[in-house]
Amino acid sequence: MNRSDVLIIGAGPTGLVLALWLSKLGVRVRIIDKTSAPGSTSRALAVQARTVELYRQLDLADTIVRRGHQVAAANFWVNGKPVAHLPLKRIGEGLTPYAFVEIFPQDEHERLLLERLEDYGVSVERNTALDSFEETGDTLTAHLRLPDGRQEVCQACYLAGCDGARSVVRKALDTDFPGGTYQQIFYVADITASGPALNGELHLDLDQADFLAVFPLAGEGRARLIGTVRDERAERADTLQFADVSSRAIEQLKVHIEDVHWFSTYRVHHRVAEHFRSGRAFLLGDAAHVHSPAGGQGMNTGIGDAINLAWKLAAVLSGGAEPRLLDTYESERIAFARRLVSTTDKVFSFVTAQGRMADLLRMRVAPFLLPKMAGVEASREFLFRTVSQVTLNYRGMPLSQGEAGHVHGGDRLPWAHDGEGDNFEPLRQPCWQVHVYGDTSDEMIAWCAEHHLPLHVFDWRPAFETAGLGRNGFYLLRPDTYVAIADNSADPKVIERYFRDHGIRPFQ
């Protein structure tokens, strides 16, 4: 019987990243997908800074940045005229090595992930579907439908449902998926065009006409249009063609279309599963949560799910942690998913709302406020912190402890960089490690050496104080680079106690 450590259902970005991380950590994976080939079109575009930071652990960051397109600015239009210009080129300066907005379409993204996964000797099994599964003791048995129609029975220690909003895994677990569906029909079109909105920047129409955003793609004159379809046309979404889309917003943005390469319509949902785990089965990505496209959060959140779960599964499977560590996957990720759905829902509802008051806010109030906000560095930084996911944290969660400087247990480790070095360099290795900024004790040095726990001691510099890091304390970092312990002491017994209390044995 075909047996793996983890059986992954679905080979979108979430499933592929999970497979990659697990493979890098020595876990045997099997990944299946019911489609015959990777997607050649996509809706997801943005790769947020936090995702790129974590991709350093897979040596993917530089490739993503090189192949993608950095958006220099966002422009807001009303009545056919630009009313606000928001510079984005270094909007997150000092916060991250990737202080920009990166566009890298999902289809290209998936092809890159597939290439790297094959380097580990793992291929996606196409035209293969999950029929059912059951859990018996310490094993999960799955029934797969193969390309020739035959059924295969296989076993795995764990199963990961990365199979999208219509997840077979979620339905098999009988997990509720509460939420709703927005009334608007959306369209997406990849085009070649010319005009002032094809200058490599983001353009957003705030007019009372159909909502429209123009996203730049790599290459001369290439862009993606995302817009709404209202009135009676929305009732025939399945048969709509690009010619049926209202031209008013397109003309308002002065987009002169030369070619339409791809066009599709879809509805937007906002839902979060009641549970992200049941026994040995987990839900990730769109199988666990779907939300509006506001802020480009969807694909990045699914990738975050995968990274959070991967190191925990690897630890448990290797004997480096007790199975109860896996309980923290749901508690950490479901809280973020619920906050995200609530936030994107508010933004999305404002941008797409109809009626006189909504039009007044968009066309009169927003054009007045946006230029003022764009001119304030604090406003731009707040926007970047929110959208880039660098402020995503697990404060108050079971695996998070303490405070040192302005950093709490559960925070992403702040980036500190100057001419003398970069404190993120050691994070390329997905392992437990200790950071000290300043001086530490002989006991800490000896204990870390004895237990083969990497210890990185950085001479104190002003850059660390600016980043909010505490002097002479320590930070215990999880394999996903979030802070497990922030402590002002130099006492290794704090770490020893933490590992014992949480059933973690990273020295296996």
TrEMBL record:
Record keywords, A-Z: FAD, Flavoprotein
Q: Does the keyword Nucleotidyltransferase apply?
A: no
Q: Which cofactor does it need?
A: FAD
Q: Does the keyword Cytoplasm apply?
A: no
- One short Pfam name that applies is FAD_binding_3
Q: Start and end of every FAD-binding domain? A: 4-342
The record's section on InterPro entries has: FAD-bd, FAD/NAD-bd_sf, RIFMO-like
Q: Which superkingdom, per the lineage?
A: Bacteria
Record SUPFAM superfamilies: FAD/NAD(P)-binding domain
What name does the UniProt record give this protein?
FAD-binding domain-containing protein
